[in-house]
Design goal:
The chain has six helices and seven strands. It has a seven-stranded mixed beta sheet with strand order 1-2-3-4-5-7-6, sandwiched between helices.
């Protein structure tokens, strides 16, 4: 007999974006210590690095103009991240990469929510037009999560990812601001203190 529909999934934390700061290096170092997470996120397995090395990498990224945004819960604890690279202020395009730090917090909508917040800010507060990115061909969660945000697949980098002796494609996608805003129309009054 079928019982009533009961959600087995705990409520999502409400999350917001803030810039990376050095105390976040630990969360990244932990993420990068898990071979499955790095295979999913970067298409390769890394030798674990201490937080100091992660901090140096973060400094390098920020020095070249990349942005590291943390998805934080109400207690300001990082639950995930968006990395914004290839930031082209002339053509208003950039690339994003992202992840949910804890394996236990994946598969409950958090990744899609964090990406949505980041894209909304990129498109509707910073005035970017297109966001590019890629996911490994085996990364089904990423593929589905991106599909929910209105991405179009625009190509593939063949056989670039290398995990445990096998090569895999990187699927290249793009999100257009117009399509994203059809799916998630921004409230023009949200920060102006005006009534709709
Ligand atoms: C990819 C990632 C950000 C997605 O976030 P998430 O919170 O786990 O995913 P969501 O709960 O928002 O789910 C989005 C979709 O993926 C599906 N999904 C989630 N986990 C899945 C899994 N392990 N296998 C297959 N599909 C999965 C969900 O069912 C949902 O699709 P649906 O609505 O069509 O059913 C997250 O899993 C993650 O951080 N993974 C490790 C790092 C990584 O892969 N980064 C992305 C690099 S491109």
């Amino acid at each position: 007999v079928e019982g009533p529909a009961v959600s087995a999934v705990a409520a999502l934390p409400s999350i917001s974006l803030r810039l990376y700061r050095p105390s976040d290096a630990d969360a990244f170092a932990q993420f990068r210590r898990d071979p499955t997470s790095t295979a999913l996120a970067f298409g390769s397995v890394q030798v674990p690095q201490p937080a100091e090395v992660v901090q140096q990498m973060a400094d390098g990224l920020m020095a070249r103009g990349d942005l590291i945004w943390m998805w934080v819960d109400d207690a300001d604890t990082p639950v995930g991240f968006s990395l914004l690279t290839s930031v082209d202020w002339l053509n208003r395009t950039l690339a994003t990469g992202s992840g949910v730090f804890s394996t236990a917090q994946r598969g409950r909508g958090l990744g899609t929510l964090g990406r949505r917040l980041a894209l909304d800010h990129v498109f509707n507060e910073m005035g970017f037009r297109r966001a590019y990115g890629e996911f490994a061909a085996y990364n089904e969660a990423s593929r589905r999560s991106h599909a929910k945000l209105g991405v179009e697949v625009v190509g593939a980098r063949r056989q670039v990812f290398h995990v445990s002796g096998a090569y895999y494609d990187a699927i290249v996608y793009m999100v257009r601001r117009e399509r994203f805003n059809e799916l998630f129309p921004p409230d023009p009054n949200r920060y102006l203190g005006r009534r709709a």
